[in-house]
Design a protein that fits this description.
Radius of gyration of chain A: 31 Å
Mean pLDDT of chain C: 86
Distance between the termini of chain A: 87 Å
CATH architecture of one domain in chain A: Alpha Horseshoe
Order of helices and strands of chain A: HHHEHHHHHHHHHHHHHHHH
Shape of chain A: extended
Largest sheet of chain C: 10 strands, mixed
Oligomer: heterotrimer
CATH topology of one domain in chain A: Leucine-rich Repeat Variant
Strand content of chain A: under 5%
Number of helices of chain A: 19
Order of helices and strands of chain C: HEHEHEEEHEEHEEEHEHHEHHHHH
Number of strands of chain C: 12
Radius of gyration of chain C: 23 Å
Mean pLDDT of chain A: 85
Amino acid sequence: MIDYLNTHAEQIVLIVVIFLALFSLLVFVGAIGSRWLLNRSEKRKARIRSDLSNLVIQYISNDISFEEIKSELTTKTDYAILLQISNELDRSLEGEEAERLKRLMNLQPIRSYFEDRFESNNPLERAKACLYFSKKTNVKQTLIPAIVKQTSEEHPMLAYAACMVILNHGSEEQKKLAIENLLQNDGLSNQALNDIFAEFQANSAHEDTGGAGLLMELIEKGKFTDHRTALMIRTLGELGYFQSADFLLEKFFELPKTGYDPEITTALIDILVKFGMAEIIDRLHKQFVQSKHSEVREAVAKALGIFCKEESIPFLKWLLVDQDFYVRFHAATSLSNYPEIDLRKLKTPDMDDKEYSELLGEIEAGKEGGY
Amino acid sequence: MNQARILVVEDEEMTARLILYRLKSLGHETRHAKDGVEGLKMIKEFNPDLVVLDVMLPGKSGFEILQELHDDPGFESGNIRVIMLSNKKSVEDVSRGFNLGAMEYVPKPFKMDEFLLRLKRVLNQ
Amino acid sequence: MDVLFRTLLVINVLIFFYFIVVNLSYISLILFSYIQTRRSKQESSIFQLSGLFDTRLYNSISILSPAYNEEASIIESTRALLNLEFSDYEVIVVNDGSKDSTLEKLITEFGLKKIDRYVPVSIQTKKIKDIYGSKKYPNLFVVDKYNGGKADALNSGINVSRKDLICAVDSDTLLEPTVLQQMLMAFVADPTTVAVGGVVRVANGCKFDLGEVSEVHVPKSFIGRVQAVEYLRAFLFGRTGWDYFDSLLIISGAFGVFDRESVIKVNGYLDDTVGEDMELVVRLHRYYRDRKEKYRIRFLPEPVCWTEVPETWKVLGRQRNRWQRGLADTLWRHRGMMLNPKYGRLGFFAMPFFFFVELLSPVVELGGYIVLAVSLWLGVINIQFALLFLTAAILLGMILSVLSVLMEELTFRRYDRLSDVLILILFAFFENLGFRQMHAWWRFRGMIDFLKGDKKWGEMTRTGTFSSRI
């Protein structure tokens, strides 16, 4: 073989060089060509998008009818772009315009696109389909049980999307099951869970304490992580049902002397303060004001300022020289709530001059601005 | 409503288009800025009667714009009315908006007719 | 004499075939990368197309930015990090015992105050002096600690972080605003993902505005242009190609997102190696494969970070020397994985490839030129063979580089002007005439330095590419 190479060496090299030259030329020409093509296709898409946007805006403003806009939609690209446009608008609008938008989203090509996606193997595609279903006014009843099953899927996006559907279209039992499944999904972010609870709340009749009841039940079960439990406590607080205050108070007193979770403790303190449960003050003084976790001390500093009891003053003064800035800030703010206290007189020699006056300045500005 | 000069500073294209469309059909003269820096520039150049200001903007945020207008000595910020429009609707954000001089704060998602009503109210003050 | 001639001839032939094999396998790697890039684009379109997924629903991220004597650019780069389009993330700047005014500048600019944040010591690091927070920027934290090197700084950042994922960046990289969303996609698409790498592109020559890239151009200098082509080939398509085989060995230290718990499980970055970025990835692979647990390490070609590349031969030489030492070090530490069927395609295919192709190639290449010259002079081989040899070594390399430019045009097309494309094609030639040989020499020196036990980092001079209004 070496002899073959030797004799034909020059030809081989020549071929390679020619190939290289042609190849490079091809790439360059291709670059020109593809940019031109791309330019054209982007211009076309931009034009379609512009036209469709105008149509959609006119339609939802009730200046053209559903039939009129429907007749303008012909190609697949049209529907794809329509979907994009609708999703963008959907995030900002509610009320009448949003209702009209929903009708657009219910058009046959879009609906079947998503119904097909629901059968896909890819969990993300199924999640996409579920999110679409959750926004519709009606969902085929036959799909519901399958969607309930998806809430226990490991994939967080899929579980989230499926849960959203159930919260809008499922029975009370199904809703409870969906939420419980989601709470056990570790991959889900706090924000996602907040959304779920908000949706749940929005979909329960206002006399129904279902949301609060469910949360209390689940917190009692205790099979969730500390992080999740703290989130549930805060959500319970946001729901604002006074009945949950006693429940949370119980949980507060159940906190151990050491090894308590800072997130749960902070959540409990913040929420119980909101409910005005002054019963916690004693324990705040005796135990939590000395917590090794700065966020707990911060919560205590804030809490004592709301209750504004005489007995808390020495504790707040102690927190005023805390090693964490935020604790000091909130302690100072809390002390400023006491009419008989002049913050300027509280400055001790070991405090930082500049910082203290900055702090006072901020608090005053905050009060003026109505913060 | 009398004809007014209205500037919409909003980076979400469709939302901006919708608002501009409705305002135009009510007879107002409108302009659109897509980011904070451009928005600030246009406030100074176009001198609108009313600004519909989003908070989450690329470049400068809505709050930063209001702050700068307030701090700018050569600018009469008292004449410009501002409606804030935003995804951020916590108590802190709303009060911050009002403290910086906004007359209305509309959280997203919003109802179009309600928005227009509040806008009308601000214009008539 | 005859024996000498025979041996030389055989060596020549072997090296000749070495070049053919290496270049051809690189070419096929690039071709596979094209397939993978298409796949990746399709996947990302699931997210983009209907805009149904909100970033608020994704995992949370901590960006770790280690800083040592960065007073010139620290404010700018930190501001840029605070401006990313993502809802739940924090920025942790770790001041690794800087001797200049890095910390002071940060304190003044962002109104930092000392806070008392509880830091679990998940990984052992040099002591942390203080942690600072800012009321105006509640997601910014600055960790002031005793000097311990980049790996140590990153590890303390990991300790301080309370988010699900960490993103390690260099202080001289600029992330595009949507980068976090894009990187997150991999984690959302497959929750068993533990690490994701993104693309590093050459910032020199580009225009930046408001912390974002506004115009993409090739660098103005020869050395910059050559690197532009190289980055396309090696760091964009090369890595994507490896992702196709699910055997990604390196995630650039300039930009990578990791699952925080997994990194803690393997005990963080190693602090006595210069190749700590690659070493972590290989260790993650090893950890999960040893335990036969499901995991994924991915490379995404869409998320882009921009970095300043060296503009002088001296600094570039030192950088490449360091990279070679890092590579050698990692391969040596994990030599147990090499050709070990327990580690699947990674151990059997990727690691040996890196060893024979990436690691040994400078030796083979330089040796090859010398042997060629000697053999030609001695008459062992004739001109024709020498020509073939050079074809295999250089011309094939040129084809490879031009192929990378083609790939770029077929997929991302980030270079705005046609003149840039033309320059890239031209430099695909130049890359193999002179640069490659110099590169081989630097890497050869790197090997020697590694064998001598050199662990220095060397300095990087900044040329202010990112100065702009932010």
